[in-house]
Amino acid sequence: MLNEVFNKKEIVNTKFINLLRDYSSTIDSSNGKRDLGLDIVSTGYQKGYSFGSDSLVQRAHLDASQNIYDSYYSVVAPDGVKVKTDLAVLLTNLSLGEIASNNADKILAALNKTNNTNITSGDVSISNITETGATITANSESGYKGLVDVAFTINPDLEPKPLSDFLADNTDLGEIADKSSGTILEAVVANNNEIDTSELTVLNATDTGATIKAKDGSTVYTGQVSVVYTLKIEQIDLNSIITTRELDELDDENTATILAAINSKNAGINLQDSDVTITPNGTHDGATIAAKSSKYTGQVDVTYKIKEVDEPTSLTDIIDPNDLGEIGTMVEGESPTAEELTSILEDKFSLVNGEFEIDGTPTETQATVKAVDGSTVYKDSVTITYKITHEAAPIDISTLIKTRELGPIDNTEDQTIINAINAANVDNGTSFTSSDLEITVKDTNDGATVNGIGDYTGTVEVSFEFEPEDTRTDLSAAIVTKNLTDPLNDNEDATILAAVSAANSGLSLTNTDVEITDKTETSATIKAKDSSEIYKGSASITFTIAATLPNLDSVIGTKDLGTIVDTNDATILAAIKEKNDGLDLTDKVTISVNEGNDGATITPIADSQEYSGSADVKFSVTPQTQDLANVFNKTKIGTIDDKEPATILAAANEANGQDVSIDDVQIDVTSDTETIITPVVDSEKYTGSATVTFALKDTRLELESTFTNRTLIDLENTSDETIIAAINAANADVETPLTTSDVAITLDEENSTASLDASSSTNYKGTMQVTYTLKDTTVPLNTVITGTTVDNIESSTLIPTVDEVSTALLAQYHELNSDEIEIAPQEDSITVTPKAESEIYSGEAITLTPSYVAYDIANIDAVIDPMETFDDATILEELIAKNSQIDLLPKYLTSENVTVTDNEDGTATITVTNGAELRITGTINVTYKTVEEKNYFNFLAEATGQMFNYSDYTMVVVITNKD
Questions:
Q1: How far apart are CA 110 and CA 103, in angstroms?
Q2: For 74-109, what is each residue's pLDDT tens digit?
Q3: Which residue in 19, 240, 737, 892 has its CB near the most CB atoms, within 10 A?
Q4: Would the pLDDT of 164 be above 60?
Q5: Cα separation of 454 and 444, whole Å?
Q6: Radius of gyration for the alpha carbons in the chain, expressed in angstroms and rounded
Q7: Strands (DSSP E) found in 88-128
């Protein structure tokens, strides 16, 4: 009896099939497969078995305890299957705590924060939103599945607050080390220790300031604040960086040579001439290096040797050519100085300072240069030539300003004096301007010192007579109406001046500026005082004096009015009438009560034709109290604008014909429709109380008629804050801006509208609808996909899958978001289009040319059905049929593209010969068993009771027994 009939590999695979049979009796014995969604592939085993759910197992280990040889099997998802994350597994914390509102964005932000995730609004839908919870459901096209219910508590105090509320008083950060974002935010915290910098970002940092801005999506802050600071300058001690101070041998002692040697000997420094001052010690073996710029401090002594020169160089060999050309501009008659020529020669010929000198005095065209006595560097002398451009010498103003007594001028402004100088010296051709002369006026205002500037030089003294212009108005012109037609009460000075001022519009004469002379009963002269700064001259006026009217002091015979109840005009007039035989002065006088409330002055009304003069009366006030219930007996006072005490009292007074003062009563509002009026404490006027009722006027504004511009353009987002800010901006003339507490906003995103309801507002009422457009923040797709090809697509199908193209695109364009594009693949072209709903990309479709990674035919199933005889074409046909899922093969696995070699052992070797031009490559050994082998497998199946498929195996070893 046959005990075992398989080699090691066959035993492993057979036992594995048996395990699958034990796992489920539903395995199809005809092909050894159970279709449960995943492929299992073992190394060296050519057939795959499908099992499992849509879970992803990377390594499945079968160990010896199951009587199976140790081996690893890889479990991989089949092409086109995406493994999704279950929200119920991912989101472990479904209690979101407190959030500002149950807006979907706020819920999603809290969900991500609580679970440390990065789920977007495109990944999930949020529904069933209540005051305490919501349902999160995965969108079908996202990388997630399932749904979860979350809970939260709404706390409006968590709404982001303006950043200025926290930083407005502490925007000067003081001195900081640098302008990096981290350093600036540390300084913000130091000045404002309660600020949360994780919610902030730093923009536009300069050497003096920066902008602190709330991060996009911050749940804590909004807006931005500018801060200022001072960058700390840390000076570097030269002793700490010039550590090597022996500079070896130098070619010369020039500053540049010494500085270059210091930089060379001390790694990492790059001192410039502007940073330090170099002073040689005079003995040609050292120098002192001292800090010059603010970057450095201290000083260092360095030593060196000057290279010895066997023979000084002749100046004639160095200064060649000896014509220096144009060397500068000078005044006519001037020559360059020896120092100027020395500097020019050092720069032009790199001569060593101190080793040469100018012999004698240079002329306007030449000079002699010679080596200094004892020079070890230079010898001989050479004559140099040069050219200078002459400019005109400044003109001495004393040669032009001959006439220096300028006569009278009306002001001492510089230009006035210059004009006077030009006028007095016109014969000398003077035409000075303020850029030619500097004027210094003497304290006595009778002369000035004049200095030439610019093209002029010299100094002269000029004199003048300062006669300020008389700008006073002549009274004869100011007083246009000189005949006063309205009679005067008298011819007193004050009466005359008042009448003249009244008769001449805009005139206001006082005894400060004028006096009256030559006064009669019908005329007078008004003369300006010498001290007046407003008027001059005089004017004669005429007038008449009105007939004499009874004097009130005589008319009111009894002036002691006794006791009265108040100081109202009507009360005082009634008392006068009672005490003076029915004298009725109503509408004929004015009454002025004195501060003590014990008397008054009675004067005629303006333009009175009945009385003149005045009279003082006296009295004592004993108030007579009134019951407020009688004062305000009409208790329904109508509709009022508000519940302010003054408003209520005014309405009560009007309804009852009263004039009760707010100072005499207390207004206590008991409800929106009722108030109680009581006397003030210790009132001498009123007693009791009065209850009055009213209706409040609805002063709220209609939303729709107030905010007439209701089309909102280019919104950043559709948050309540953004919509309200846009409404206010579009209606800037509205005095009371709309706030989030005024309205409830309902969005209709499909129609791009928002409905506002002001039911709870104290400022507005009614509803309105606004339309909006969102700002297009997308970028053209062709600015991301900038090439014309898709390279290195790995695909076993004639037309690659969307995922295969997407993988190649992402490898080529790392910034591309493949979730925002539509991919339409063909074998020879790939069309990429932004998704219609994409918030990232826009633009037209892009057509790309694909290139492929050649498919290695070694990966295909190389065991075909038994053949009677070997045949190239039949092998290729069988191989293509056996691997029908690889639709590249019919097109490319042809006799024109491959060679087929019979190995004469039941196998054939197929090699791709045109791989560079095809989409396939590689070599494969194909097993094409004979009919006899097939029959033998049938025998094994019957003998062992095992399930076999002859196409699964390449070799069979028969063992009769274990012994």
A1: 11
A2: 333 344 445 688 999 999 999 989 888 888 888 998
A3: 892
A4: yes
A5: 28
A6: 55
A7: 95-99, 124-127
Within a 13 Å sphere around the CA of 289, how many CA atoms are in the beta-carbon half? 33
DSSP alpha helix (H) spans, 375-439: 414-424
Q: Is 492 left (phi over 0), alpha (psi -120 to 50) or beta?
A: beta
Kindly tell me if the per-residue pLDDT of 46 is higher than 50. no
Q: pLDDT tens digits, residue range 926-945?
A: 887 654 444 544 554 555 55
From CA 754, how far away is CA 710, in angstroms rounded? Answer: 10
According to DSSP, the β-strands at 95-99 and 147-154 are: parallel
Q: What is the mean pLDDT of the chain?
A: 82
3-state secondary structure of 628: helix
Beta carbons of 509 and 534 less than 8 angstroms apart:
no
DSSP letter at 84 equals P
Residue for token digits 């109508």? Answer: 638
CA atoms of 541 and 614, how far apart (whole Å): 29
Please give the Cα distance from 158 to 452 (Å, whole number): 74
Which residues are CB-neighbours of 116 under 8 A, at least 6 positions away?
none
Copy the structure tokens of residue 312: 């000084």
The CA dihedral of 626, 630, 636, 638, to the nearest 10 degrees, is: -50
| pLDDT score of 57 more than 50 | no
476, 500 contact by CB (below 8 A): no
| Dihedral class, residue 499 (left if φ above 0, else alpha if ψ from -120 to 50, else beta) | alpha
User: What is the C-alpha to C-alpha distance for residues 77 and 40, in angstroms, rounded to an integer?
Assistant: 9
Please list, in sequence order, all residues whose beta carbon lies within 8 angstroms of the beta carbon of residue 601, skipping any fewer than 6 positions away: 591, 592, 594, 614, 615, 616
Supply the pLDDT for residue 301.
93
**So what's the pLDDT on residue 618?**
94
Q: Where are the beta strands (DSSP E) in 307-410?
A: 313-314, 323-331, 356-359, 366-371, 378-379, 381-391, 395-396, 405-409
553-607 pLDDT, tens digit per residue, is 999 999 999 998 888 999 999 999 999 999 999 999 999 999 988 999 999 998 8
**What confidence score (pLDDT) does residue 10 get?**
39
Q: In Å, how far are 24, 31, 82, 346, 949 from 34, measured between CA atoms? A: 9, 9, 20, 97, 15
Smallest CA-to-CA distance from 632 within 646, 652, 647, 649 is with 652
pLDDT digits (tens, 9 = 90+) for 360-391: 999 989 999 999 988 888 888 999 999 888 77
Give SS3 for 612. Answer: strand
**Distance of alpha carbon 109 from alpha carbon 429, whole angstroms:** 85
| Residue 321 preceded by cis peptide, ω within 30 | yes
Distance CA 674, CA 89 (A): 62
**% pLDDT > 90, the chain:** 35
CB distance 297 to 234 below 8 Å: no
Which residue blocks in 94-179 are alpha helix, DSSP H?
104-115, 164-167
| Long-range Cβ contact pairs of 115-118 (< 8 A, separation 24 or more) | 115/90, 115/91, 117/90, 117/91
Task: Say if strands 286-291 and 276-280 run parallel, antiparallel, or are unpaired.
Answer: antiparallel
Domain range summary for the chain, segments of one domain joined by +? 8-83+932-952, 85-158, 161-231, 236-306, 313-391, 395-466, 473-542, 552-621, 626-696, 701-774, 779-853, 855-928
Long-range pairs for 179-185: beta carbons < 8 A, 24 or more residues apart? 179/205, 179/206, 179/207, 179/210, 179/229, 179/231, 180/205, 181/205, 184/210, 184/212, 184/227, 184/229, 185/212
Residue 176 has pLDDT above 90, yes or no: no
Q: What is the pLDDT of residue 289?
A: 92
Alpha carbon distance 415, 437 (integer Å): 10
Contacts (Cβ under 8 Å, ≥6 apart) of 196: 220, 221
Residue pair 509/497 in contact by the 8 Å Cβ criterion? yes
Token match 């979907």: residue? 104
CA distance 327 to 386: 7
